[in-house]
What does this fold into?
Amino acid sequence: MQARSQSGQTTDEKATPSKPFTYIIDEFADIKVMRYRFETWQNLSLNQKHLIYHLSCAALWGRDIIWQQHCELNLVVRKALEKALTSYQGSRTTADWKEFETYCKRVFFSNGIHHHYAEEKFFPLCSREYFVSVVASSFGKEKPHIYSEQIAEYVYNPEIAPIRRQSDKSKDLVASSSVAFYKGVSRSEVEQFYQKADQGDSLRPISTGLNTIVVKTEKGIEEKVCRKGGVYGRWIEKIIEHLQAALPYCENEQQKRHTELLISYYTTGDLKTWDDYNIAWVKENEAAVDYISGFIETYLDPLGQKASWEALVDVKDYQATKRCELLSQNAQWFEDNSPINPIYKKEKVVGISAKVIDAVCLAGDNFPTPPIGINLPNSDWIRKEYGSKSVNIANLAHAYEQAAMESPKSVLDEFALTDEEKQRAKLYATLSNDLHTDMHECLGHGSGKLLEQTDQNALKEYSSTLEEARADLFALYYMYDDKMIELGLVSDKQVAMEAYDSYIRNGLLSQLTRIQLGKDLTESHMQARKLISSYAFENSDCIERVYQNNKTYFAIKDYEKLQKVFGNLLAIIQDIKSTGNYAKGKELVETYGVKIDPLLHKQVLERYQKLNLKPYGGFVNVDIVPMRNSAGEVIDYSLEYPESFVEQMLRYGREYSFDE
It folds into this structure.
């Protein structure tokens, strides 16, 4: 981030009745773009601000990595669009230009040419001829006309990179996906390759293949490592540069130690060093400023093994963290009383750290559509021996709630059946959402254990969905437990009832608004919600399907019985995970988590369309701007709230990318 002056609200500009802070700053296609607030910037020391600044620079330099991981065509397409948006001299008021601009925004939002959730390629609504003319005139003599034609071919040809991550099991998941984890290889070739790979210590296995790509060369099938001097090497060097700049400002020696290990990992790509870093990171719980950075989550890989790059920089909310700490202090009780088979329970729960944070920089796979809760590291043996960190990202959750209030109509009013249900949501939804996220991340992901002989990658393409379902079920089961009242987290069962209402309503109805008619659910979190809700509806009598005024609703008849259903399903999924039962996991996901009733889906989409809402939301980042004295020294940093999604995307393209 360079010192600059730009238009935008700063942290010194307080929202007032005459000048309220607006959360939604742009809407297009099926998307709304929001701003989150960071209200404690002025309370931070200069050293903490230096640390956040350099960690944020390191995070933003990884942006191009996720673009390339999504599809190898993405960067060349993005740079053509950036050039057009900044250099096109033709009219910007025509309908064609508006459609071109909307396509650019969609590409920026999705980090590529595929929909960020549905994962299918989307297309501009302006003509191909117009698209070519805009790109060609923007480059002028810099590029030959054939260049613009080639970009248009990438963009408009439905046969080129049609889907980002293939989920159709009738096809080769590897060969038919556009993600850049594999080149020239089939699924069977990849699986055979890794069957021969060294997993290391069987009790403490490394995350084989996590930070590599697999390619077929003249020598055969090879693995290439993401590291300095390797795959994505130029960007990783920049990440290292800013991590090194952050070292003098680390808040304690343990934070400095894990940052040094992360630098070593990025330099070598060694997965044993990655484990060492994660252990050191888990042990650091004192600093106010924290961050994640690396190849972490495997949702993007059709085989569930290779990780997409992501980063987050955050600051601890000490007051709100007290709720999470109470849960983590009682983690052993929750583990001991879980409804799963006793052989899958941890005898001693260690190192569970939980906190509430405010995000200050989102990057990679966390941007612009971040999670609102995180639990890391993902390695089961590290969780077992050293514990994990769980976070609830409060300022993002708050922004979602405030943005919803800026819209005149709501999903709740449309899809909730009774006034009682609606009123319960208005009174308790914020608390129930916070508690569900806390328990999902803090306790759910960290619960249970694998049997010693179980391969941590045994569930393959179903692992992410089953793991999210497992963590959701853990939270849902305990939300209705008397322990929550005993701990003082809730005053009665109304909070749990709201959590059950909203989960079933979302799983069976409202989340379908995000899916095109006739398509299956493919995203792991959505599949998990559908799996749990459909299983509970089809295997019990505690949920009733109600028809009223030609509309379908789902009403919970017995909350206590539903809790038992959640507990039974949790036991089933824990058994699948602990034993690595791929066949049973596949059956469960495919039976309950993928298919959508077409008549119900059509009705839901028609009802939602009348609300004139956008089903997907994401964020711009706050801008951290160095303030310098006459000698050029940084004496402070200001925080600015951007007012334009496109302008931030264009600036990131200028400042955190390479000229090709």
Notes: The chain has 24 helices and 16 strands.
